[in-house]
Amino acid sequence: VTPPPSFGVSGPVFYNISSTGTLMVPSGGTSNYQSIAQSLGAGWTVEEFITFADQTVGQKCATLYGNGDVCTEADLGAVTSLNANDWRSTNQQYPTPYTSFDELRYFTAITSIPQECFGYSTSLTSVTIPSAVTEIGKWALYESPLSSITFMSTTPPTLGEEVFHDQAASGNITVPVGSESNYFSLAQSLGSGWTVNGQTPS
Question: What whole-number distance in Å separates Cα of residue 51 and Cα of residue 59?
């Protein structure tokens, strides 16, 4: 995490500011910025925002669920459902540009991923399914060339028709240790080159 800047001037840098507020800092940066928050006043706090691997996904999350610029774990944890129309492409000639969405793990309150939610995400190679998700609708990841799928739950969700389609010929499903055998049949359905936690399904 980048440390806070040095304020090499005399006198206050922040002047006549609100008595309460929030410093938004990158994940892991709270301790670096705590002293600045304290200098601003007792009503100031530090909150960490999520740094997304895919900036397009990050900006969409910030727009839909955050403050327009960034979003926090609390913002995404408060989301109880996904609207497929917010995320999918309805025309395969204009696919969505997402490349990864492992930050989906922070959507801890959603229990399903709706039909076609990430349809025609033809550059999406990595996704993480939150632990509370028990159902994924048909074509939810249609034509996504996934090579990495992470499930946070020990129990696989119920899958609709062709949830995974045109995935990579080989890849890995990451699951909680000890639940590998629960996902073997899914890995086999994805292709002979797929493993679960690096294990070849048997």
Answer: 10
Question: Which ranges constitute the DSSP H helices of 41-180?
Answer: 55-65, 73-77, 84-87
pTM of the model: 0.86
Tokens of 114: 């709706």
Count the helix, strand and coil residues of the chain and give each as a percent rounded to the nearest 5.
Answer: 25, 20, 55
Residue recorded with tokens 């500011």? 17
Q: 113 near 134, Cβ under 8 Å?
A: no
Copy the structure tokens of residue 140.
């939810």
**pLDDT (tens digit per residue) in 54-69:** 999 999 999 999 999 9
CA atoms within 13 A of residue 32's CA, in its CB half-sphere: 13
Convert the pLDDT of each residue in 185-195 to its tens digit.
999 999 999 99
> What DSSP designation does 115 have?
T
